[in-house]
Amino acid sequence: MKTKIYILLALLLSLNSFAQKFEELAQTPPMGWNTWNKFGCEVDEDLIKEAADAMVSSGMKDAGYEYIVIDDCWHGERDEDGFISANKERFPSGMKALVDYVHAKGLKFGIYSDAGGTTCAGRPGSRGYEYQDALTYSRWGVDYLKYDWCDTDGLNAEGAYTTMRNALYEAERPIVLSICEWGQNEPWEWAQDIGHLWRTTGDIYNCWDCEEDHGDWSSWGVLQILDMQEGIRKYAGPGHWNDPDMMEVGNGMSTSEDRAHFSMWAMLAAPLMAGNDLNSMSKKTIEILTNKEMIAINQDSLGVQAFKYQAEDGLEIWVKPLANGDWAITFLNRSDNEKTLNFDWKKHLIEDPDFDYTLNFQQEEFQVNDIWANKNLKSTRKELKTIVHPHDVLSLRLSKK
What we know:
Elements: H1 2-16, E1 31-34, H2 36-39, H3 45-57, H4 60-63, E2 67-69, E3 75-78, E4 84-86, H5 95-104, E5 108-114, H6 130-140, E6 144-148, H7 157-171, E7 176-179, E8 197-199, E9 211-213, E10 218-220, H8 222-227, E11 241-243, H9 255-267, E12 272-274, H10 283-289, H11 292-298, E13 307-312, E14 315-321, E15 327-333, E16 339-343, E17 349-351, E18 358-360, E19 366-370, E20 375-379, E21 384-388, E22 392-400
Parallel strand pairs: 1-2, 1-12, 2-5, 5-6, 6-7, 7-8, 8-11
Antiparallel strand pairs: 3-4, 9-10, 13-14, 14-15, 15-22, 16-21, 17-18, 19-20, 19-22
């Protein structure tokens, strides 16, 4: 008997040595929707179906959104063999039927689990059941896994996420792996070959500039999350993205704050995962979430994250190299006051601090397009003079003439 066990273990180790993540996935930042920010544990199959319907009818699908992700609290019990099922009261049709519904809409389905023994809301985690859970997700037709980091005392983060990566690979269904360990173990330094995106911070909170203290941990406002991205852009690129958490657009901030929030996530080449109620979106929220020019900045094939070029008195200038020699520039007004902008392009030589990109306005002329106003501002030969409103942005695309 012991000999057979040793042979089986050796076989599993041999298989794992060839395991890898699915490299062809997430070549641009994933776009979709997640239940947690708005609904928390109040999830059921009707909510997911309605969200899928709304993603299509609102124009979000046409704008590039594709993942419908159910976060924590979908779980039922494990059976006598250890296989997980969905909560039967909340998901009476079963998870496979729900996945099929989402797929029939031309969308993809995402699910949630945790590397620990229990999830953050106390449901069954995947610790010790990684291969069974991966096989279950594969059988259901899941396309995306958000994998959290609660109840993980004694675990090594890199090892735990590698185990789930290997399990997904052995289950033979390409699934995007979203690493959600809040940046505590600096995943940008080790996760490129394990996951397709990794959280860089703790949870986001629905405010412009604040900290929500939960005692032994905090949630963070948009500006706090933005500031936490300092120094890690060099680790991101096609197939491996820094993730500053899901968006709060449409959850109660002002229109200008939502617009700035969305713009900065686009500039950061961050995953664009909406976190609002898709069934009750205002026209303004839909316009922000489906702005195709801003989405194009986010989804640019070069896959280079923006850097902060300049900051003075609450006004920041963020610059993002794009494919085909184009550039994106966003002027972010963090302050409570209007900022007068007099920007003489020819006086600025902009050099990327991490990659070999240089923007020299003395040598090249660019056409300037105001993304949010959908307005041609002529070219970089002309000094840019305008007002940037409080808690708002001026986002521009510079195209070679």
